[in-house]
Specification:
Length: about 475
């Protein structure tokens, strides 16, 4: 009899738990529906992006435009947050100067003009430009094989393309970006006078793509100019070199490094009502390159992160945990903002989640998580909630450059993963502009981010002992 009663109680306990789970799932489903409805009808993200892109423009660290973006976003966040403030950050200042000019000259003296742009951080050429023969390589390994005897006195042309068979385009980017970042430093060691790097772009076009480069530990006297060449013109140069390996390349650029200046991270938050010491961070980077207006990289991530706070406030949702927006400065050429935030806040606050949007404003596909296997179990329990919104990619993997320094102490790091097939058509190029961003896709991304953070706010994260 006693065992029978015990079994009845166990059965009733399971039934009650199942009913509670079903009720909770229904409640969460309705909340996500409300979040998507709100973002697709009343979101401010597209208007904010319009201002950032068309009224301010490209926002290189240390520029007037970067400061204007700081002022604008701080003012807007004050309207939707409990508190908002600035965190000072020392950032490098680099300017492009007048537009670059380049051509290669054939044996019959024909000059073929090509499209180039200085890489961020590069030094200028001499005032009258620079002209030399060209040595084409497929990467740093081939450069080393050729050595000083073949490289000295020449321009090194790095022509390894992004791998087109990679469905994950960020993997294709990562597979060849070393030649852009370290190419000048390595070529200078063998006596090269300059480097030209094939643009990190899967599309064939006439747009050169800039990006950060480094001279590593070279003495400043050993620095050499570095520029990117468009994919179409990289192929033209390659073909011309196959016919005449003695052709010469000329280019002129007058960019300049100015040292460090003071800029700011922009921070705002809604304080949690139940667990205010548990902080959920969402953010993107406020700086951008200067060729376009930085709408995809990373104006989209900035306004989507701001929209998370705006959505919660306008929908009268009172978070249990503190929801904090951080708009990081200097992701593009130094990561100074992310490092400063982690240095000052990582040990001060209990960051349980940090979500970054820095992959463009295209249709969201899901998220990648830097999390433990146990923490991924929690994520997998939410798959059905996201299914109606075609969000299917909830996988363990990387997160984002700006939230990376917060790794540790059980913090779940997350990256929004939009469809990436067209992202590198615009990345760091002159066509990274407002007209390239689809309003609905941008809003879907903001809604997806808000929904995930709602779930983390409601349920918290699984905490386990670290080894």
């Amino acid at each position: 009899m006693r065992n029978r009663v015990l079994l009845v109680f166990i059965f009733l306990g399971f039934a009650f738990a199942k009913a509670q789970l079903q009720q909770s799932t229904e409640s969460d489903s309705l909340m996500l529906r409300s979040i998507y409805d709100y973002n697709l009808t009343q979101s401010k993200s597209y208007d904010w992006l319009d201002h950032l892109s068309n009224q301010i423009g490209g926002r290189l660290s240390g520029s007037v435009q970067a400061q204007q973006a700081v002022d604008f976003t701080l003012d807007e966040l004050k309207k939707v947050a409990d508190t908002a403030w600035l965190q000072p950050v020392q950032v490098p200042k680099w300017t492009r100067g007048t537009p670059e000019y380049a051509y290669f000259q054939l044996a019959d003296d024909t000059k073929v003009k090509v499209n180039i742009c200085a890489l961020g951080g590069s030094i200028a050429t001499p005032e009258t430009g620079l002209k030399a023969k060209v040595i084409e390589v497929q990467g740093l390994a081939e450069l080393k094989e050729l050595g000083e005897s073949k490289i000295k006195g020449n321009i090194v042309f790095y022509n390894r393309p992004m791998e087109p068979t990679n469905i994950q385009t960020f993997e294709a980017y990562g597979g060849c970006v070393d030649q852009r970042y370290s190419g000048a430093a390595e070529a200078a060691k063998y006596g090269a006078v300059a480097v030209i790097v094939r643009s990190m772009n899967l599309r064939m076009d006439d747009l050169p793509h800039t990006g950060a480069m480094s001279y590593g530990d070279l003495s400043i006297t050993d620095y050499i100019p570095a520029a990117a060449i468009s994919t179409n013109d990289a192929d033209k140069l390659h073909s011309a070199l196959n016919k005449d390996s003695s052709l010469e390349f000329f280019f002129e650029q007058n960019c300049k490094n100015w040292g460090e200046v003071t800029s700011y991270n922009v921070i705002a938050q809604i304080k949690g009502s139940t667990y205010p010491d548990e902080v959920i961070v969402v953010g993107g980077h406020l700086d951008s390159w200067d060729l376009g207006d930085g709408s995809h990289d990373d104006g989209a991530g900035v306004v989507q992160s701001m929209q998370v706070l705006e959505s919660f406030k306008s929908m009268n949702y009172k978070p249990k945990r503190t929801i904090r927006v951080v708009l990081f400065m200097n992701e593009e050429n130094g990561l100074r903002g992310a490092r400063a935030y982690a240095r000052d806040m990582k040990d001060k606050d209990n960051h349980i989640v940090a979500l970054e949007s820095d992959a463009g404003g295209f249709s969201p596909r899901g998220f990648s998580f830097d999390a433990s296997d146990a923490q991924m179990v929690q994520v997998n329990n939410w798959r059905q909630l996201f299914k109606p919104y075609l969000i299917h990619y909830l996988e363990k993997g990387g997160s984002g450059a700006d939230v990376g320094p917060l790794k540790g102490n059980n913090t779940v790091l997350i990256g929004l993963r939009p469809d990436s097939q067209r992202y590198f058509d615009h990345h760091h190029a002159a066509n990274d502009t407002f007209d390239a961003v689809n309003k609905r896709e941008l809003e879907l991304g903001a809604a997806t981010m808000t929904s995930l953070l709602y779930l983390y706010d409601k349920y918290g994260v699984l905490v386990q002992k670290l080894d």
